[in-house]
Every structure is written in C-alpha cells, then in structure tokens.
Design brief:
Length: about 775
Amino acid sequence: MTASPIGDSVRRRDAPDKLRGRTRFAIDRGEPGMLHVALRRAEVAAARLLRVDTAPALALEGVHAVVTEADAPGLYGVGVADHPLFARGVIRHHGEAIAAVAAETAEQARAAAAAIVVELEPLPAHLTMAEALAPGAREIHPDWRSYEELVAGGARAGNVAWEATAERGDVDAAFARSDVVIVEGTYATGRQNQASLEPRVALARYEDGRFTVETSTQYPWAVKAAIARQLGVSPAAVRITVPPVGGGFGQKFESSIEPVAAVLARQTGRPVRLALSREEEMRTALCRENAEIRIRSAVTADGEIAAREATVLLDCGAYGGEQTFLTSLVTHTLMGSYRLGAVRLRSRAVYTNTAPTGAFRACCGTYCTFALERHTDDICAAIGADRHAFRAGAVIGNGDVGPTGQVFEGDVLAPMLARMNELRERRPGPPADGRLYGTGVAVGTWFIFAGPSAATVRLNPDGGATLITAGVEIGSGSLVQALPQIVAERLGIAPGDVTVAAADTDAAGFDMGVGGGRTTVSLGAASRGAADEVRRKLLEHAADLLEAAPEDLLLADGEVRVAGAPASRRTIDEVVAHAHAVSGPLAGDGSFTGPGLRAAPGCAAGHMIEALDLPVFAVHECDVAVDPDTGHVEVLDYRVVQDVGRAINPRAIAEQIQGGVVQGLGYALHEEITFDEHGQVRQGGWESYRLPLASDALPVRIALHEGAPSVGPHGAKGAGEVPILNVAAAVGCAITDAIDRPMTRLPMTPVRVLATILGHEQPPALPHISTGGGR
C-alpha cells in the first residue's frame, strides 16, 4: 500500500508554466471591447478640494465615462469606516484618487485624467507622526467622531485612528522593586514596499444586473463585500473570480481598485480594466508601515523579567485601514516571547498626510521582534548574562501566561533554542580580512489567524477529485501542494489527481483570505472535512460492491480494498460509477474556524485579536562581517529553526524560509520608502528602491521543529508568514555585536551603520503622547 503523502516533498505542479511564462495572471488578461481606466490623483499631500470639473475630460475622443466620489459615496475601512473611494472634500495624501476615467485606450484615459480641472486650497501637511501628535496639531480627519465603527472597542481621538491597550499585573510595583535593574530602549523603523511582480489589476463586467470582477486579490470575499458597500448593491449581485496571483505579501488584501472598475463597468456597459502602473504601486501600494517603539523592562540579576511596558506608534498614513487591526498584533509579538511578571502596552495607529499603509508579511511583527530582541541583548549586557543562556531560561513555555492572560500550551521555544545550538557548531567562523565580526540570535512569536474557511470536494468519474475553495494561489504553493496532499491522503489517491479549482465566490464558500499563514491550517482543515465526507460516502458504496463492512475497507493507490483479502478490491472510478447509478455524484462539504480564544477579563482593550488561537515560534541566528570603513554588512551564515507543528511538505516549507529570509534581509539592510517635502514617495520604481539582488541571497541552514500543539490538519501550522519575522532582529543583534554599538533603526544601511560606528547616529525619540482619551 502506498504510504501517506503527508510529509512528502511534493513538487509544485504550477512551477513549469510559471518558469516558462505560460501562466496567465490577471495582468495578462483582457476582453474584446474592454475600456481602459486611468486615475486622476492628487499632487499635494493636504488640501481642501474646492472643485472637480470633469467636462474637459468627457469632451475628449474615446472617453466613455468619468466617475468621482458622487458615484461611489460610501466609506470603507477595517476598524473604522474612514476611507472614501475618491477624495471627498479633502485631499489627505499625495496620490489620493480624485476621479477615474474609462476610455478606448490607455493613452486616451491618461490624457483625459490629466484634463480634469481640480481646484484646491492647500492645508498644512503632517508628514510625520511627531507632527500629527504635536499639541494643537490640525486634525487630518476633523469629522472622525461621525465615522462608523466597524469593530467596537478601540479608542479614537484627533489624529489617533485607533488605540489598543494591554495591562496585566501591577506594573508600577514591579518597577519600584529594589532588586530590579531597569533597561529601556527606543527604536524606529521605515516603510517597506511589497514589490509584488504583478501590480494590482481588476477586470470588471456588468451584465444582467450583476457585477463580475476578475482581480488579483488575496481575499475574494472582501472584494465582494467592498464593491457591494461602495456601490450600494446586494453582495449577491457581485461575483469575484481570481486567476493565479503574481505575489501578494499582504498588499492585495485591500479592495480599492475593484469598486472603481465595477462602477465604470456599470456606467459604460462595457468591460473595464484597471491596472496600476509600477509607479502607482510604489507610491500608493499600502506598504509596511513605519513605526516607533519605546520598550522598558524591570529585570532581576538572575534573569526574571518582573515587568515590561511599551509604547508603539504605527503610521497608518491618511486612513486607518489595516493598522487598526495591526495594533492588536503588537501586543502578541512585542510581549509574547518571554515570561513577564507584569505587562503594560499602548499601541496607536496615527494618521499622517502620507499614503496609507497596510499588511505586509508578518505585519508589525518584523519591527516588534527587532525592538524586542535588541532590547533583550541590552538586558543581557545590563545584568551580565550570556545572550543564549538568558533566552533559554526566559522564553515562554507550557503553562506560562501571555500578555493578555492567555495560558500557553507546550514547551516549544526552549527545545528550538537547543536545536539552534547544534546548528551553530557548524558555522564557518570569522573572516580573516580584518572586518568586524558578530553573531546575533533572535526568538520570535507569531500566530496563525485561523478564521472561518469552507471547502467542497467532488469525486470525479475518473476517480480523481476536485477541490473547490475561495483560496487563491499567491505564490506560496499551499493550494498546489499541501491542500492536494491533505485531500489525497483521505481519499487514497495521488496528490496529482486532485484538481484545485480557481477561486470563484459563486462556487466556493466563504473564506477569510490567503494570508497570515492560515491557508494550510484553515483551508486545509476545511478541505480535510470535505474529503472525510466524500470518504464516508465512497466507503459505503464500495461496501455494497465488495459485500463488506465499511470499517473493513482500505483506501490506497486509487482502489478500495478489503483488509486481509488483497484480491477483493475495486477501483475508485468503479465505485463512483456505482454511486452515480444508485444515488448520484459523490461530493462533500467541510468548514473550519479557530477556537476564538479570549483575553483574561480586564487585560486587553481595543484588540481585534485578544489571544492567539495558534501561536507559532521561530529562532533565527546569523553571523555578519562589517566593514568599519564603509559600514557595509555581509551576512556570512544564516540559520533557522522554525516551529511547523507537522510538516505537510518539508520542501515547500524550506522554500518559504529561504525566500522569507532574503526578503527580510532587504528590510533589514536596504529597503525604505521615504517622502519628499511635498509628501510624495521618492522611490517611484525599482531603479530607485533597493531590493535584494541575487548577490545578496545566501543559503539558509534550516531545521524544522515538529510536535508543538496545533489545531491544524495533521497538527500542521502555517509556514509562509513567519520566515521574515526574525530576520531584521537577528541581523541587528549581529551588527550590534560586531561594532559594539547599538543599532536602533531600520534599515541598517551602510550609511547608518557607519554613522553608528562613528557615534553620529542618535537613538530615535518618540513624539509626545497625550494621555487624553476619546471615542
């Protein structure tokens, strides 16, 4: 009997076509007779919008329609509805959409967009959080009190879009103890662009009173809801389909272009295509937010962390968006890796007159882990502790209490650190060329956002199966590797015999979207449930044919066999034919959602995630060489121990870790979105934005840690999100070790490293934070 495919390194079925350029992404698609869309965008960061005259655009050749805020008057958001599809009375960031034009050609659309007359009255712009939080600062959203709260609980006031707080234990008493050393640090990080190869694109049609939108998105059901909300129609009138997606990394969770294409399709009666340029993607693409972190700990000489408090400011740009959600995650990533006696945290999403920010792989966890692990090394220096031994004794374990009162299960991080000790023994050692040498270790806590998922499995006449979900393939491989393995294992067929249907909200049940490492866990569990229902029906029909009890039957190699009687067997397609004659086709449905753990009473406020349904941990370590004359950093060796629960496909996990580390090196050492004095992003393309090059990549030595508790199928945890989590932290700790001066800002460019070596780089100072409340 063929062994279970669970644990096999099944190759990606989509790899040959993607490598040869045959895969058709949304950006490659179109329809005869389609119109092209161009957006008129604001060229200032802050202004009153006095007049928009679309008549000159409508008079141009080839133009079919122009739409403004009057055509899509709704507001959208995550925690609070504060974001119009088009600017409404106020410009809040450079590049904000004012109007959209549909024309016969892209050139005609761009010319018409440029012809729209826009009259503005400039306003003072707040381009930094310090400016936005300064006493007496102009409110970027003066009507914030009138906004609909989509989620209850977050404090809001003035230029604070959302605030989440966590407090457990008596923090003040712990800091007042006579036996503690108080260690504090302040850290600042920049913005990072997701740099997906495929830009955001949507192709919309309006037929028979329904919208059909083909789009490059990670969350089809959110796009469906956004179009319905913006256009004032029933969600049943909207259908979303998704071809292969050319990269997402969180950027394609947001739904701002699809409603534009939909409203123009309705107005023109023609198919409409809106595809953003690379410059638009760079300047408006919801990149990873910049942040500022202050962290303070009270620690005893023997390594007990009696208390920790922190303040984190997240720059959400002009609209709250996903940052209202990410304020919750700060608590778990900044406060979740170590045993803490008492906890106090305040995280704020702050409005500025800059392009909105959004989700990016491991979201706020990357900079929280950087701040936490640099702070941990400072603690070790303050109490004279070995960096590795301190972590091994202080990391959270079975029965320990998290920042919101959650009790953790299983000892995971301690054995992972022990495994890292083994990997460290095989490192190459310092270079012999006089460069400064350092080692950094970082532990990190992330989570799998389980959330609801649905799946359907159909058994086909040829004995294969079709899996139908609203999951999309964004490049991680889960939909073409892990999910077919899970279904195949239940049905006794090969993973290659499982066809995965493209996402279509008319055919697939609800799903919370592909991201957060949830695909294999949530969609995998739903797919296994659907396959279990098919398996039950299949065995019942096979029992009729084989004159045996269902419990005596085995499924393997595309056959149903009677245990102990190898000659008594039927192929699965024969059983399917019998089922068709007796009762009809065989299909099954499955669903899943996380347990929905809650915080202990009184510990958390404003949190959209109060506790972690499924924690996942990582340990990274690296060695670096730093040129003391130029500040250039070379990573010599990189090692990862990752908590995977159960490795459904070890090769796929290793690929995710390798890619995540390289992407994290870009964040750590090179990548940063910055603004000029007018609020415009300086990096308008990849020629001015320093992505990792082939020469920056290095082999990553990997150990997978299995066996930690998990609600996922076969005990699996998601593996795609966490590989980037610790990279900046490990590299930052290694550089600090090498130069014997603290790195406190990301990215750690050669200029910044050299300034730190020379003593010119000053620790960041957080803005004044008012304690005033608000709703």
